[in-house]
Design the sequence.
């Protein structure tokens, strides 16, 4: 069964909700398992900084150093999703994220049976319907 974890955003704040979010993300990942970190909602050049932040949080909140954290790339995305045990889609610009994910129409087929988390725009990308203040409508 696919486990979806939807988070409203601001995952960088140190609080109980964010601690449990990261803990649940990796809860079912076996030692040495792959956690795919997706930053398609942001500019490519900030991915290294986002990776550093997420890695620190995952290590801090989960006390697990046995995970293989992988940054998603558009060139290898389908292959990376297939080999991931858990996937975290971080927020940013919703329209940018959705336009990138549209390039992978089979994405939702490959996440079956995995843990898939989305924060802010990442949660929107996993939902059937969502509201966008910038678009002024539900989509």
Sequence:
């Amino acid at each position: 069964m696919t486990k979806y974890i939807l988070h409203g955003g601001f995952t960088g704040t140190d609080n109980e909700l964010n601690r449990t979010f990261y803990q649940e993300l990796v809860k079912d990942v076996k030692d040495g398992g792959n956690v795919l970190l997706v930053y398609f909602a942001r500019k490519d050049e900030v991915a290294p900084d986002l990776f550093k932040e997420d890695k620190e949080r995952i290590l801090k909140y989960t006390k697990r150093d046995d995970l293989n954290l992988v940054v998603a790339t558009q060139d290898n995305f389908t292959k990376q999703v297939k080999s991931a045990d858990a996937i975290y889609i971080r927020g940013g610009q919703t329209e940018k994220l959705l336009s990138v994910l549209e390039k992978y129409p089979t994405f939702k087929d490959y996440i079956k049976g995995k843990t898939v988390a989305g924060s802010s725009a990442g949660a929107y990308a996993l939902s059937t319907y969502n509201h966008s203040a910038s678009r002024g409508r539900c989509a």
Notes: Residues 7 and 119 are 5 Å apart (CA to CA). The domain at 3-128 is CATH 3.40.50.880 (Rossmann fold). Residues 47-62 form the longest helix (16 residues). The chain has a mean pLDDT of 93.
